Amino acid sequence: MTRFTIPxxxxxxxxxxxxxxxxxxxxxxxxTAAPKYVPLVATHKTLGIAILVLAVLRILVRxxxxxxxxxxxxxxxxxxAAKLSHVALYALMLAMPLLGxxxxxxxxxxxxxxxxxxxxxxxxxxxxxxALLWQAHVALAFCFFALILLHIAxxxxxxxxxxxxxxxxxxxxxxxx
Amino acid sequence: MAQPSPGAxxxxxxxxxxxxxxxxxxxxxxxxxxxxxxxxxxxxVQALAPAGGPALGHRRNHAKGICFTGxxxxxxxxxxxxxxxxxxxxxxxxxxxxxxxxxDPNAPDATSRVRGLxxxxxxxxxxxxxxxxxxxxxxxVATPEAFYALLAxxxxxxxxxxxxxxxxxxxxxxxxxxxxxxxxxxxxxAEETYNSLNTFLFIDKSGASHAVRWSLKPQAEVRxxxxxxFAKLGPDHLAAEIAARVAKEPQRWTLVITVADAGDPTADxxxxxxxxxxxxxxxxxxxxxxxxxxxxxxxxxxxxxxxLPDGITVSDDPFPAARSAAYARSFNLRTAEEKDYPRGDAxxxxxx
Lengths: 177, 352
Known about the structure:
The complex is a heterodimer of chains A (about 180) and B (about 350).
Chain A: H1 6-30, H2 37-65, H3 76-106, E1 111-112, E2 118-119, H4 127-162, H5 166-171
Antiparallel strand pairs in A: 1-2
Chain B: H1 6-30, H2 41-48, E1 64-74, E2 90-100, E3 115-122, E4 128-134, H3 144-155, H4 160-169, H5 173-182, E5 185-186, E6 194-195, E7 200-203, E8 209-218, E9 224-225, H6 227-232, H7 237-248, E10 251-259, E11 279-292, E12 312-314, H8 319-335
Antiparallel strand pairs in B: 1-2, 1-11, 2-3, 3-4, 5-9, 6-8, 7-8, 7-12, 8-10, 10-11
């Protein structure tokens, strides 16, 4: 196996768009009190649940399909960074939507998505719980974005500088000669 | 795999740095970090704080209030306007909060002209209708930006011209000033009329929408007095009075829906609709229990006016969105400050 499977690649790129959109919607909505605030919040919640579902699916697919090995000549620190950053990315894909869902639940607010879709509350109404989840959701959002920047930089480093096929294992094509 | 030349490698690294910088820049722009003048919930909340800073743990406005519970008794008349279950004949549980406009939870009652009622009605279908109404017949200003400018101008105590230039730029404030100066002071929360002021859309069973505003009109006899006489009743009269009154008998308001005619101003709550607009009485709000806010059921509720059941939506009125953004900020801050407004027995010895 030198490439991720087609379903893995589809999931990766779909989620790449969804998660980047999610982070931009998130910081954008709290930056405004304009009428778009209301649809942005509804979009944020809906997209969050979609990402949660996709993340679970993606982890299942990964467990089944595995991953192509990293290049044998990849230095050990980079190998470790690759492993750890991916663990963190998967953890955040799951944790961020759950923290958000928990935040809305613990605020005692109905969990209402676009098109009037109602989800159940997953936590009891509690100020202290809400405060904790809110702070975690905000702090981890910035960590998530920073990690994605790092991920993009690393991917491009593999593509342009190391030219070791790691980028192509997800993007397709062959390494530049 | 061919390794790039040192020159190409440098170029690649520069390209990578540019991609990361562009994304980070777009993120910073979206977050408003490059636009300090963008009006956000956080800025509105900041502008509401008094000079000495906000009262931690409390709502950032309408900070003094008291909880009530009761029911909404729908008479079924609203069904023609909205498909929300809350209008189908029946009794639905209510949590609410009487309050007045102040950032100070210990402010004397006579210091505020604007009183409010926060309301949550829950229906068996799992839907929730929240509303926060106030007693003036219209809002002081036409837009959220003007409201922010009003807060900013009134905070500039050192500049006597600040309010004057605000009034010149926002002439609608004059009507509010006239109301605040001349309207009689009402002795009880139970005798107030509370108005949505904002316009919402009711969606009926056919999917047609109706622009509406609503009011809670007291069934109690209204007794009003001068500002001086009201002040003599004491700094905490309103809470004590409503508690004693509801203990004696439940208090009631009629929920009246006013339906706009085509062309009525729906986006500007500083403009009243003509008095002859169609009004539909859709039910009765009954308050039958009063509890202090500290441990009361309303404390942890954000009376966000955009939390609406299926059958009610926001309209082109920009205020509910701005209020939602500001209320969320206030809620996030105060729930993280629970220790500054301790519950139950913990309160002893910590209150000023």
